Every structure is written in structure tokens, then in C-alpha cells.
Amino acid sequence: MIQRQDIQLEQERVSMLYRRLDTVREQTEKALAGAHARGGPGGTRQARVEREVAADEYARRLAQLNSVERGLCFGRIDLGRIDELGEALYIGRVGLRNEEHETVLVDWRAPAARPFYAATASDPAGLVRRRHLRTRGRTVVGMDDEVFDLTQMSDGDRDTLVGEAALLAALERGRTGRMGDVVATIQTEQDRVIRSGLHGTLVVQGGPGTGKTVAALHRAAYLLYTYRDTLERRGVLVVGPNATFSRYIEQVLPALGETDVVLSSVGELFPGLAATQVDVPGVARIKGDLAMVEAMARAVADRQRVPDGDLEIELGPLTLTVPHAVCVKARKRASRHPHNAGRKLFALDLLRALALDEARRLDAPDDPEDLEYARKLLWQEPQVREAIDALWPALTPYRLVGELFTDPVRLAAAGLSEDLLRPRGAPWTVDDVPLLDEAAELVGEEPQTQAQRTAARRAREEDELYAREVLTITGLEDIDVAAFAEWQHDRGREYLTTASRAAADRGWIYGHVIVDEAQELSAMAWRMVMRRVPTRSMTVVGDLGQTGNAAGARSWGEMLDGYVRWREERLTVNYRTPKEIMDVAADVLREVAPDQKPPRSVRHGEPPHAIRVTPHTLPGVLARLVGTPVDGRLAVITTDERYAEVAALLPEAVTLDPLDSPVAVLTVTRSKGLEFDEVIVVAPEEMAGRELYVAMTRATRRLTVLHEGELPATLRGATRRV
Ligand SMILES: Nc1ncnc2c1ncn2[C@@H]1O[C@H](COP(=O)(O)OP(=O)(O)OP(=O)(O)O)[C@@H](O)[C@H]1O
């Protein structure tokens, strides 16, 4: 039994930790201010860089100290024997030392904290007691103990969840619309995922609500803590299913004190683009297939032409000719290079041949210098430019893919189906993004336009003008303006975080990549992700039972075997969906993915309700249900086809961000990875089995299905009609 006295003792400890946090925070603030005050262009470059590195480190530490106020210390472990409690360690969101440099709080990611998460009744990992502390503000309001005294345990006890009371209390809280961290209640199987080594690819397969996302994010924080030197410079990329999901999870890492992580979705992985639309399944399947690699190569080859006969260009009275054979040879040589680099070689060969022909016709000497000069002049001739552009145009990825999908002749030349044809100006889709990335590899460096060259020159001039003003104001006029401007420019770049530099650079190579809802990535999307992580240091989390994308994964090997030998961990406990709902969902899963085992739910709640509606009664039933929700947040989930109709019935809900609105209206695809206290599924009979499985498992408390047609057989037996 926990005594008031125990709470008092823990309060003293926790108060001491907060005092220490305040002191360290103050010291770090001063150190940061000091580092900034010493800044400026003086000293050697080495000294400047060292100062800036120190300032960065203080700033990072300060951000971390500021983020850990809530729930600073949440656990305690006692090592030794049960009859003589020995050493006690306190576990918190951050590590702290006292003035004597002794550890007073162990960072949850440090090896010493591991038994807090890893100890189970059957393997206590040297612990005699684990204590979860519950705090409100800086006050200890309660605690839960688990005593590992094997002699007193029944077999049932040995299989308990880690800190069951604390875990269940955490799960009972209503959903806020944003994912929170779970450092205080990480479970043993999740801890294995979080602390798995950095190298190679770890696949985490787990059913809905098993904490894949939350474990993957804690893993990112753990890896950044444990392998900071390796990861800080290269950063960590987290790829999620869409931008809403990225916003849903974006608080977790900063709350854990980590900000150097890029959150993105497949539709955003090509810098400058944020695609959200998806293609119809037939098109998505074609675009996601690896056969697109060859097709894209053919599409590029189709933009590298030679005339059927000799190339003839009229220049005033002269008609210059490049023999067909010379054109063919030039194409052969140039096509070994990326398209835009090849264009330069191709143009050079053709210009050389034209200059030679011109010299011959004008009886001019074919002196190399003269020829070089003549070549330059010819390049200025619009007819010459046009002829070369027609044969081998400068391409951007957008132009290559855009012109391919709007032209049946080009599609045929690439060996692609006319199903891909779309109108000019149609928006880019998520499934186009891996193709744009492929195209970027094939066309190579984008040609710099005249406008870009002018913009770069202007920016340089502005930097210098600004530098001159600064130097005049500060009376440092003897310093070289150009050098000062350059220093300022570099400094600006150094101050950009790794994350922001990485996000803007397609060629950025990350230290580690985490892919969530990974079952949705097509083979082409995997190819794009792999380019960003040649070391294959990756965490791949997903559920093959939830695959919705027609081009998505049916097995992990199918997607990953060609790139890496991967290892797998499984998560088996569902922390979201009550058992009564999961039992019904399990029937759906059995039908769509019989090889996948449904997870075991730890929560209890109501069984799902089914209500038969007609087009006439649907608005009233929906309004009644939405008007009397359980405490917390509610989502109405339906098919893509029904979305507009349902959204029209709930106009207020759809004006708000689905994460902030008390009632969200979502398609199944949009609801991926999210969760709500109450879920209403409209038209389950029109959903594919996997869609239904995803929609049903979003609920933490109550699920109602509204059907017009026959209820799917999998739902019929297990639901009550009201
Ligand atoms: N150890 C834990 N302590 C407290 N809450 C937890 C724990 N693990 C998971 N949860 C909670 O369970 C819910 C489901 O977690 P999460 O979204 O990570 O699951 P998931 O496996 O990614 O699900 P899905 O496949 O359906 O997207 C979240 O609210 C999460 O905070």
C-alpha cells in the first residue's frame, strides 16, 4: 500500500528535481547569451565556427529543458533485494546532474533507464520495484507500484502489462486531436523496437493501435540521443501518409526535446511540390509498378531524336547540313549521360559539324580557333537553337512527366497505357511524385535559366549593398565588403537547421529514415525513399492488414528484398480499440488478410452498433448521433464516393481542420493513422474489406455503422441494431 508518507518523500525528490531544472535552465540561458555576445566577424574562421557550434548546442539544450516541464520525472526503479531496497534511480524526460555532478535524474533513453521499460514479472531485469509517479504541474498526485517479488507471484501476474494502472489511466484520457508522447508508459515490446540498433532496416509489423507510430517517434528520439554524432549532421526523416497525419504527430518529438527531424509524406518528398490527390486504383497500380523505371527511361529516350535523314538548317542563303550518321553518333555518345548533360554534348557535336560545313561552303579555313568562334555564333542563331531544341530539348522533371501524361503518342512511345492520359493542367498526384523523382535522376541537373542567373546576381548585389551599409554604420569601413557579405551569407546558411536544409534538398542523404503506414508505399515510392538513405538505416512501420493503396505492399519482402536484408519486430497489443470492437474487426481482418493475426486489446468498451438507414433517414440519424457524442472527439468516416454527400450533411464540421474540429468528416484514406473517441462509419457495405477494417479500428470508445444496403456478413453477427 502506498502511504501518504511515500507521496511526501517523492514530492521532496520531485521538488528538488524541478529546482535543479530551473538552475540548469538559467545557466544554459546565460551560456547561450554569452556565446551570442562573443559572435561577429572577428577572429579566425575556426574560432567563429567553434563559437557557433557551442551556441547551437546551448540553444538545443535550452529548447530541450523548456520542453520537459510537464512530467519531468515520471518513474523510479529500485534495484537490489525486496527486503532491503537498495539503490533507487529516478527516470525522467531529460537527464540531470547535481552540483557534485552526480546523476539525479536519468534520461529515459539512457541505458540505465532500460529496466524501467524492460522489466517484466517473469524477468525483472534486476529490479525489485518499479514505481510510476503521477504529477500535476510540479505536484506529485499519485503513484503506482509494481513489486517484483517472484516468490509471491501467480502465473497470471507474471504476464501483466508494464505499469498497468498508469497505462490504463493514460489510455482513459479523451483524445485531444494531437498525438502525445508516452515516455511514462512505454511497454516492453515497444521498448525493444525503440532501442533496436541504428544499423540496417527494422520492420515493425503490428495491427491497428499497437503503438507503431508512437514507438517509431520515440525511436527517432532515442536514436538522436544515442547516436547524436552520426545523426545530427544528416538528420532523420519521418515519412507519413499525408500532411494531416504529419500535423497529428508533429508535437511528439518537440515534447521529447527533439526538433531536428523532417516530417514529410510521399506527396511532399519532391521539394517544391505538395501533392495530395491520389489516382484511381488502376492508374495508381501502373504508376507504382517498377515497370515504370524502364518506361521512364523510354520516355527520356523518346526526347532524344535524330532526323530521319540529314539535318538541314537554312541560314539566309546558306543551307547547312549535318549528315544523318553524324547525328546518330552524337546521340549515341550523349545518351550515356543524364539527359540535360547529354544535351550539351549533343549540341556541341552538331554545332561542330555545322561549323565545319559552313567553313567548307564558304571556303573558309578550318582553323580550330575560327571553328570555335563560328560554333558560338551558330548557337546564337534561332534556327539552330530551334532545330536542336526540337531534337533534344532541355527538360525539367515536370516537363518530362507532364508532357508524357498529356500526349498519347509519347505514352505509346514509352510503352505505357492510354489509361494514364490526363488533361493538361491536371494537378500532380501523390503517385506522380516518385515518377518526378525518377525523372529528376534521368534528366539530371536542371538547366539554369537566364532568369535564375539574373536572380542570383541580384541577390549577390543586394548582399553587398547591405554589407556596405552595416560596415558604414559600425565604422568598420576598412573591412572588405565582398568578404563581409559572403561571411554574412554563410552565417545565414549555417543557422539554418539540418532539418530545414534537408527538406529543401532532393539530393539530401539522411542518417536515418522512418516510414510510417509503410504498407501504403508503392514499389516506385520505395525507390524514391531508398535514394535518400543509401545506408538503408531505416525503420519501416506498418500493417499489411490495412493496405489500401492498389500499388501498396502485400508482403514486406516484396517491397524491401531488392534493397536490403531486413529484420522484423511485431507489436501485438492494441492500446486504442476496445476488445468488443476489435472482436468484430477481427472477423473483417480474417476475410481480407487471413495470414495476419489481430492484436489483443487492453481496453474495454461497448460493442459496435449497426443502424439501418435510408437516403431519407440518414441526415436525421447522423444529426442525432453527432448531437449526442461520448465525451471527446468524433469522426464520421466514409468512402471517397460518399464523402461529398456526407460532408454536405455536416457543413460546420468540414469548415474546420479535422484535427481541431470536435466532429471530423473523413474518407478512409484520410483517417489512416488517426484516432477518435467515437467513430461513425457511413456505408460500410460500400467499403473494401481493408477499408472497413481501417475505419472500424479508429475508435477508442464507441463505434456505430450506418448502412443502407445489406450489412457486410462480417459485421452482421457481432453488432446490435438499435
Ligand atoms: N505504451 C503506451 N502508453 C500509452 N499509450 C499508448 C502506448 N502505446 C500506444 N499508445 C496509444 O495508443 C494509440 C495508438 O497508437 P498508434 O497510433 O501509435 O498506433 P498504430 O499502431 O500506429 O495504429 P494504426 O496502425 O491504426 O495507425 C495512441 O493513442 C497511443 O498514444
From TrEMBL:
InterPro entries named among the record's database cross-references: DNA_helicase_UvrD/REP, P-loop_NTPase, UvrD-like_ATP-bd, UvrD-like_helicase_C
Entry keywords, A to Z: ATP-binding, Helicase, Hydrolase, Nucleotide-binding
Residue stretches making up the UvrD-like helicase ATP-binding domain: 185-578
Source taxon at top rank: Bacteria
The keyword Hydrolase belongs to this UniProt entry's keyword annotation: yes
Single GO molecular function: DNA binding
Annotated residues for binding of ATP: G206, G207, P208, G209, T210, G211, K212, T213
Gene3D superfamilies found in the cross-reference section: P-loop containing nucleotide triphosphate hydrolases
Any single biological process term in GO: recombinational repair
GO cellular-component term (any): cytosol
Stated name of the protein: DNA helicase
Higher taxonomy: Bacteria, Bacillati, Actinomycetota, Actinomycetes, Streptosporangiales
